[in-house]
Write the structure tokens for this entry.
Amino acid sequence: MKNFYPDSLFSSKILKAIAFRIFGCVLVLVTGTSLLNAQPFQKELPSSAFYTLKKLPSGNLVASGKNPSSEQVVTGLFSPSGNLISRKVIKSGSGTLLFDPATAFNQMIVDGDSLVFNVYSSSSTNGVNNMLLKTDSLGNASWGKAYKNDSAHLTPRGGSGGLIRNSNGDYVVASWSHSHVNGSLDYGGHIQLNKPDGSVVWSNHYYTGFIFLHAVTESADKSYTFIGGTSNPLVINTNDAGAIQWASTYRVGTVANELISIVSLPDNSKVIFGSHIEPGVTTSRNGYVLKIAADGTVVWAKSYKFGARLDYFYNGKIAADGGFIVSGKTNSLGAGNDDGLVVKLDANGNVQWAKVIGSEGAESLNDIEETAEFVYGIGTTGTSGWYVATSKAAGSLSCGEIAVTPVVTDETALVVRTARTYVPYSYATISGDNLTTDNYNIVPELMCEIATPLNWLSFTAEAKNSYVQLQWATENEVNTSSFNVERSADGTTWEKIGFTAAKGNNKNQYYFTDNAPLTGQVLYRIKQLDKDGNYAYSKTEVINNLSANNIKLYPNPATGSHVLLQSATKIESIRVLNATGTVLISKNAVNNTIYNVPVSGLNAGVYLVKILFKDGSSEVKSFIKQ
């Protein structure tokens, strides 16, 4: 018999959602089981549209975006509990600051205590130029530098895209530009390596037409892979000096598809996230994930269809378990218009869970970050930003969330890879820009609220003579309706063996007796059922060596000349073995339920008693001889 004692305080709270309205930008917090007191949240910010989210060394999170009504860069600094610490608007002294929403999902990085942004500036004097901004962690501007071709050519142009900090601490830029070298239609992708002070190491423009670059990743082999394209998706792989090693487009059959974000895996393979028009259904767009090897060979490609309309995948990140978590939006289902989308995939692209989050407005979940306790995300709702909190598990829903299961189609055979060749044109000129920063403070407004979650105080399971006694204690049962008692022999398949109604809001104690326990190892848990249909589980308790024969062996440790072996079933024979398996005592034809095992001749140590019963079954018990 094994006793399990209660924890002094078992407070594994299943966090649910509290949402607040400030008027604006979206940060989505996806939570799991947590011991934290902080609650999930949903918040908005006025005059903001957020596209990129990053974790800071302090533990806070920072989001970047723009002011939809004016050409300014906006940052929002948030605590892990969702509080707005500061909101900054960065302005250009010589014109306006812009970025392309279609390519802005990776436009900010964290460099120690600084933030770096890939944007572009526009002025009547210098035209439109790609630009890097650097600020402190609060969003206060340090410097801005614009990049263009030399002044001998016509008005240069450049746009924003993705940005990473490489393994050497330098900045790698993916964007677009228009050099005017070959006339008015020489638009194309632009890649660039900058030192942390903004100086250029190398800078290359490629005449890719209107295939602009959205994102970049660095692989373990020090190569860079750039992606882009909204109809004919392009992947360019370069060495660490920016020279192209291979370039290819990847189409799903003949339909248009776009690549938005990319991650590198330890084996130098890459996983790319985006969307594509469904083959044969031009009114439907599906989420899309493509995995390629280091040389660009297609490993697998999968389509994710949530409904008959438009589904988009935006930012995909490597999850803590080695799979992927993806942000996006859908108008195929949900509360109405566009709604945010969170999808958890395993390492092979299989869906583990997916949720639609939103209201009757138009929401988009643009970027996500995972911590030890949460997954955070940001996006937009209408012309504002948006915060959402949702549990990390598929079974817990709040604030109008919908659990969804997309139709996943393997499209590896449909992917058409076409090799491309591009000749670079280098930029060299840098101009500075005077920047100013304004601070805006906003007070949240409550948007929606889910009842404070039940708190588990303890849960124990104890084996008695022929039964198992379960006991649990809770408090704060505001939204709890009942409890199911569940049992399993393997931890995978669970059966309901009992039910009890919740008593109410105060601290409560519950008891349940399993009068017909399983033999061997048995697992028990309590399923908490809420009034709103949500549910959560207690911790799992394990009972070992339950036996239908109800064997007792005592005293244990043995201090005298015998130990008493007692069973509910008649014993046929016994064997006493030492730690090496040598049989020291053997007794046949016992034909009784009680037997005194002689131990006076045994040395101090641990021994096993192998018992054979009349019905042919057998068990092994251990005892200590002192």
Remarks:
- The chain has no helices and 53 strands.
- The first strand starts at residue 13 and ends at 14.
- Residues 54 and 62 are 5 Å apart (CA to CA).
